[in-house]
Write a structure and sequence with these properties.
- This protein is 17% helix and 34% strand.
- The protein is of the alpha+beta class.
- The protein has a domain of 212 residues: Rossmann fold (3-Layer(aba) Sandwich), CATH 3.40.50.1820.
- Strand 3 and strand 4 form a beta hairpin.
- It is globular and about 70 Å long.
- The N and C termini lie far apart (53 Å).
- 43% of the residues are buried.
Length: 659
Amino acid sequence: MKSMLPLLFLLFTGLTFAQNSTKRTLKPSDIYRLQNLSDPHISPDGNWVAYTLSTVDSIKNKRNSDIWMVSWDGKESIQLTNSPESESQPNWSPDGKYVSFVSSRNGLKGSQIWIMDRRGGEAKQLTDLKKGDLNDYEWSPDGTKMALVIKTQPDTAKVKVPKPIVIDRYHFKQDIEGYLTRKPSHLYLYDVATKKMDTLTKGSYDETDPKWSPDGSQIAFLSNRTTDPDRNENSDIWVIDAKAKASMKQITTWTGSDTAQQWSPDGKQIAYLRSTASDNYIMYDQSVLCVVSKEGGEPKLLSKSLDRPVSNPRWTKNGTSLMALVTDDRTRYVAEFAVSDGKTTKITSGNRSFTALERHPSGSFLTAMSEPQMPTEIYALEGGITRRLTKHQDSFLEKITLATVEGFTSKSKDGMLVSSLLYRPANAPVGKKLPTIFFIHGGPVSQDEFSFDLTRQMFAAAGYAVVAVNYRGSNGRGLAYCKVISGDWGNKEVLDILGAADYVIQKGIANPDKLGIGGWSYGGILTDYTIASDTRFKAASSGAGVALVSSMYGVDQYILQYDNEIGQPWKNFDKYVALSYPFLKAYKIKTPTQFMVGESDYNVPAVGSEQMYQAFKSLGIPTELIIYPGQFHGITNPSFQKDRLERYLVWFNTYLMKK
């Protein structure tokens, strides 16, 4: 028997090599293969989870989302819808017999609510809204009614020539929505059996996010009812009886933002998230978990001492505590907060990121989670242990090799310790200095986490080490770390990026002669700031950025930020000029830079990229400008997403892969 061991070893290693050799590195077209899971909801009996699965048809160049469900034991997965049009916002009827969803299928001009028997069969259209856009809905606890949120829209069915857009608002433009007129969103009560609809709220204010009380008698919702809602970011929780002509009651009075309200199981309290800041403009902030009586009064702040952003609050079954997601230094974990004293217990750990939370009838929880080498899947969370339910990503992963991801901490020039992530290409030679791309996250109030990131994995697949820097302004490191860049853009963030660059060079990871930098949105803005501050980067890609800040007042959607963070230009123009240094000092830039932007971007309009491109052309610095037709701030067209990845690689390869 002993004589057989060498042969068995050779057979085993040969099989392992054959299996590994069938895998390949990522390529831009793989963006068509990656599926996105979202919006999971548990059936009332706890046996099933409904969710949306988004896939791409590369031939039609179209992304489509369908409704699926998976059994709680994870053994059975069923696709419920398969129409050419997308379905979204799945939910269960309270008796568990039907799955409802929103769609504009069958050629409808606007979205309507549909229902289908969970056991199969064709979906039936439930609502037939003639005017307005359906934004949200929620079943009443007894299943006889729905609370609808409908945004007012003018009747244009008989209008042949568009009318002029008349603007009279302080905040008058927004990405995707375009120019903002006065079209408020209101609450309506829809009777499922008779299809009769009663108006709950009227007037010039918006009402959103309806949540039914457990006994079905009341609805909690959000509204900003200040004198001019455009001039602040307030939102308060209000409660109204679930009947026509009922009066509403204000529950919270914080001048900042109150959101994400959740009724306690006994209906006596409401949990919610409150902004730390009470200012008109809330950018550098983190949400605090609170509980208040359903009658209002002074709230109890459960997570204030945690100094980390909290999201997705959900009551435990017995109502004595709340589960929520906590954003913390490169991770997002699940924690439990005692209602009595705010005592916090960390439920999950590890280098991963949780993104959803819902209570199961048993008292366990449903969650969604991603890891550096695993795109998002849905899991059961039982006793702090995750159990995978869906397996949609297996077909994507079985064909490819992925970069390894590790964390590191660097020290900036002023002594600040900064947390970052390093992507090492699969099978990278040990000890070899690699061409390195710093791909910078947007926001700025967000963070790079131990979660799956296709763009950075794509760079690594092309042979690059990739660095993700959680510069000051990012969340996950406390409020002070986040707020310190307010009104001082392109200063400390650049110090942090350069400090991370020094670290990977000193550690022998990065080839100092082959450094690149890029990013989108605030990541594009920081790309501009960085190449105007340091000439070490040999190539750059600035996506949806802006460098001439002094030209953007009234051009983009950030009027509140300008007025409240750096002041009005006629009062503080020197500040605008100082923040515009990448454009005004463009003659000092040596880095060949690619500029990209969506044609219809109102968030960071195309003019920001166009101005820098023109400056580079005038100065003779190698550059190119790519404008994606019909795209907003986020590029959603699948072929454009693939094109962007391809152009990234061609541009960086041209300057960083030369021998």
